[in-house]
Amino acid sequence: MQGCEVGTRVRYWLTLASGMLECLCFAGVVFGYASLVFVLKEDGYFGELCINHPSINSNCSRQDEQFSLVFTIASFLNNLLNLINGFLFDRFGTMVTRLLAISCYTTGTLLVAFSSAASALLLFPALSCIAVGGIVLLLTNMQVGNLFAAHRSTIITLYNGAFDSSSAVFLIVKVLYEQGISLRSSFLFLSISSVIHVLRTFLLMPRTHIPYLLPQCYTYGVHCGKANTYNVEQVEKLGAGAMTVSQETPTPEDSTETKDTEKVTSFWSCVLSWFFLWHLLWLSIMQLRHYLFIGMLNPKLNRLADSDPQLVSQYTNAFAVTQLFGVLCAPWNGLIMDRHKGKPLAAGKSPTQEADLRSSCLSLFLTSLQCLLFSVCASIPVLPLQYLTFILQVLNRSFLYGGNAAFISIAFPSCHFGKLYGLVMSLSAIISCCNIPVFALVEGALDGNHFYVDIALTLLTLLVFIHPIYIFIHCRKRSQQEEEQHSGRSPMTPEQKLQRLCSRKSFSLHHMISFTFHLFNFTFNLKFCSNC
């Protein structure tokens, strides 16, 4: 048994490390598009759209609009097709989904490799294939967090941070291009590297899914002997039953909780919950802010730098370099969400899921605050300030996507993770379509001035604070209900809760939020009674 444990732990660590490299070097390269645009312009892609001969004084706004459209469509399909990818992942498992993703990704890199200025339209399917294939590689890797239950959220956010940092790959392509290595050579190398993804799919990834909680001596991939594999839904239904590592016998109370859990785990009950709806709003607004910033970065830098190509190249490189640090920023978000994992629960306290929700509240709030600060800095038309904007952008983006995946894994059943993750990304993609009319507005009526659009987006960003406030109120209500049930007291009426809050000598921030909520609840009850 000890040899079994040693062998499986080594396989787990190899899977974790190889997944990290896969996300860091390949999965999210499309988000380094700003560096790639610089190379594509040098090669004359869409150059015929410039009004005059390509020079410093020429008007190339139509060329910029076309490049922005390539990224907008790629980012839109990157999210929209996540719904289909999620269903494929949940239905057919890891191997089938990854092979389709690798095929799509390789097709995209080959299209870029064999494209030219005369066939610039190939960029539309090429970048879309790279984006879709990359996000599926990330989706199949996030289940690796189930192998390390105590650090599940940290690993999920770490992979998302690596996904963000992989955008620096296009910076490497740009630097190599400036050293004389052609765009075709770089993308042929990326195409050949897909062999590594195929080998990892068969050797270090499961055929179906990695369950949570993890069975004893769970194995996967190519091995000698029979694998101790399980169906993920069966493992989740057993909960803390015989297949867990602890092998503890469940009590009658645990059996009752398991039955209750099975009643509320339907997919549509998750979709129609307030958790999902507020989370969708939270993700969509911040994602729209980031997509507009990345899509309009090159023309914005040209405007602020007075079309100085050296300055534009310098700031483009700075933006790409900051993306490398996403892998260092993202795990901090996971550490915040995992902080309750190792703490034993006292009698009468909430179960693990409620503790995770409480810790996610702080993570959601910090992410919202980062986005607000990033949006404010991006709105100020001062070129040196963009260095700070780049730092805040990569920090917020690392927290955003890592926190998104971690929150879905915490708030909803794991058997629906692929579908819910795909659905929330697909719905947010619909909102990201606002990129097209907004960019047309900036290049047309606003004559390239982004200031008014940035101000409007900053005001829109204030809405993202609704989500962490709602989670905070939910956790506080659950905590109070558990305290009342544990003490044997009957639940307090809204009037009693309001009197209790008013009798306190000092208010903290969460007391202020609770006071406002109970005051609203009390007023609503009075109005309802008066109508009766």
TrEMBL record:
Gene3D superfamilies: MFS general substrate transporter like domains
Membrane-protein topology: Multi-pass membrane protein
InterPro entries per UniProt: MFS, MFS_trans_sf, SLC43A3
Transmembrane portions of the chain: 12-39, 67-89, 96-114, 120-144, 156-177, 183-203, 271-294, 314-336, 357-381, 420-439, 451-473
Subcellular location(s) per record: Membrane
Keywords: Membrane, Transmembrane, Transmembrane helix
Record-level GO cellular component terms: membrane
A GO molecular-function descriptor: transmembrane transporter activity
A Pfam family hit: MFS_1
Origin superkingdom: Eukaryota
The keyword Secreted is annotated on this UniProt entry: no
Protein name: Solute carrier family 43 member 3a
Lineage: Eukaryota, Metazoa, Chordata, Craniata, Vertebrata
